[in-house]
Amino acid sequence: MSKTGPFLLPVFRSALFIFAGLLLVQLSGQSLIEASQWWSILCTACNLVTIAVLALVCRKEGTTFRSLLGFDKDPSTWRHTLKMVGLMLLLGIGGMYGFGFLIYGYIPVVMVQPIPVPLAALNLLLLPLTIVLAEFPLYFGYSLNGIDRITGNKWLAIGYPMFFYALQHSFIPLLFEGQHILFRFLSFLPLLFVLGLLYYKERRLRSLMMGHAVLDLATGAQILMTSLFPAVYLLMKSAGER
Description:
By secondary structure, this protein is mostly helical. It has helices spanning 5-28, 32-35, 39-60, 65-69, 78-103, 117-151, 154-168, 178-202, 206-228, 230-241. The protein contains 10 helices and no strands. Helix 3 runs parallel beside helix 6 (117-151) and helix 6 runs antiparallel to helix 9.
C-alpha cells in the first residue's frame, strides 16, 4: 500500500466537491446559492469519480476495490445491522437538529430543495448506492486501515479520515458561508467519530454502509417530495426561518 495514498485520498474527496461546485457555477452561470439545488446530482457525479479513482488506485497497488469492503471477513448479522441503522439515524438526525438550532436557531432546508422530478426519482436510488460505494471504501477501507498499518497509531487512523469525512460535508452544497460550513461540519462530526471507533474495533463495514444508505434514502425521499410538491418546500423554508 502507498504510504501517502491513505492521507491524500480524503483530501482529494473534499477538493473534488469544491472543484465540482465551482465548475457547475461556471458552466451554468448560476450563483452558488442558485446552484445549491443541484447538490444531490453533483454528489452522485463526484461519487462516480471517487469510485473510479479508488478502483485505479487499487489496481496500481495490486489489490481490488472489493477488498476494501472486507465483506468476506464481515460477520454482520441483521440484528447488528439494525442496531447500526438506529445508531446512525439517532446521531445523524440528532447532529443536524442539534447544531442547526445551535448555529441558526432553526433547521436549514437547503438540502431538500426541489429539482426536476425525473432527476429526483432517479437520484433517489443512485445517491445512496454511489455514496456508500464511494465514501466507506475510501474513508474506512482504504484510509483508516491504511493509516493504521502505516503508523500503528489508533487515534491518527481514526481521527484523520473521520475529520475529512466530516469536512467534505461542508462543501455539499458549496456555499462559502461560515455558518453553513460550520453547521455541515459539526452535524456529522459526532456521528463519524463514533463510526470510526466502532469500525476500528470491529472492522465490520456492511452494517455501517446500510445505515448510511438509510439516511441517504431519507434525504432523497425528501427531495423527491419537495420536487413533486414545491409548495411543501416553501412551507418548510418559511416555517424554519420564522
